[in-house]
Amino acid sequence: MASYDTIPSTAKTQPTPFKVNIPQEKLHQLEQLVKLSPIGPGTYENLFEDRKLGVSRSWLESAKKEWESFDWRSHEAHINSFPHFTLPVTDDDGRKHSVHFVALFSTNPSAAPVAFFHGWPGSFLEFLPILSLLKSQYAPDQLPFHVIVPSLSGYTFSGRPPKDKDWTMQDEARIMHKFMCELGFEKGYVTQGGDIGSFIARIMGAENEACKAVHLNFSPMQKPDSASDSDINELEAFALKRGAEFQRTGFAYAMEHGTRPATIGLVLSSSPIALLAWIGEKFLTWTDADPPVSAILESISLYWLTDSFPTSIWSYRQHYGPNPIPGGVHGNAKFRLNKPFGYSFFPYELMAMPKAWVQTNGDLVFWRQHERGGHFAAMEKPDELLKDVTDFVTQVWK
Known about the structure:
Elements: E1 16-18, H1 24-36, H2 57-68, H3 72-79, E2 84-90, E3 96-104, E4 112-117, H4 128-137, E5 145-150, H5 169-182, E6 189-193, H6 196-207, E7 211-216, H7 234-249, H8 252-259, H9 261-268, H10 272-285, H11 293-305, H12 309-312, H13 317-320, H14 328-331, E8 337-345, H15 355-358, E9 362-369, H16 377-380, H17 382-396
Parallel strand pairs: 4-5, 4-6, 6-7, 7-8, 8-9
Antiparallel strand pairs: 1-2, 2-3, 3-5
Domain Epoxide hydrolase N-terminal: 16-127
GO molecular function: hydrolase activity
Pfam families: EHN
């Protein structure tokens, strides 16, 4: 009987099945650290509940209390209800990279391979709601896509970036392209991404013929010279105003990641409550509506239990470090997408871009504007994002 873990016969290398199983000792250590970690005293700034000055002390206190009795094993069981694998990839210099990924493989010969890429502070967890929808809608022989969700280097169960090399987004895109080819999709695949995943998805599309199309839900860029304010609708204007406010008041974390990654990496590896405050703030302020605390704790627990924070922020140097990419990835002509390109607009995204801007750096053949939804679209609006990707791939895949 066909199943979602049936590897395509074209795979060059057979991936190894993987099961998430955090050692009990590590869980016990986290439980003790959460209980023993203090929360700072109340101040003028942290008594505000509107988060304009950062996460509130009361929210952190409440989340800490829930974390003290958090049942990781039940979340782990749900995570393991999807097929997981690891696959070794050899880089051009002979280095070995291990890529962890979640997948639903189709046994339909005409299925299109689609790779979904997460960002920071996300992980493969963001896409599990979409995988659940697909499992409920399609049997393996009816699934129209091979759905592949890799963990980027330095995140959760993938290998770490090398310690003797300044790892870049171009390096990561090269590894992910090789990864897709090793899975047997060197003749063609589609990429989808948000946040840092959008940069990887775009670079793969710009640099590899095998990447036939790219769908994004994040594409921050400066206003193009050719764009006119008259081309912007009311919802786009709202989003631009929200993005400008984020750049004015919410950018400090990115500057810290890009310019002092060593310091913040060591700081947030010293206390799970510090990590909860740093990442919890993003889940609360970057979304349309507050996610359940349990979902936030699941993500932060995964970061802590896999020691991922200090190894996950390498990409920020190319945006906010001493030598940023001119114009950013999405605004740089080097990464123009001269192939089918789709974009989903969610108005509560950190920097949701107008259609008139996005279409200047690619062959934009699909655009859909949504009334709600924020930065973590796959988690917040899985039905909407899945429909967009389905409609886009159906339109462009030949």
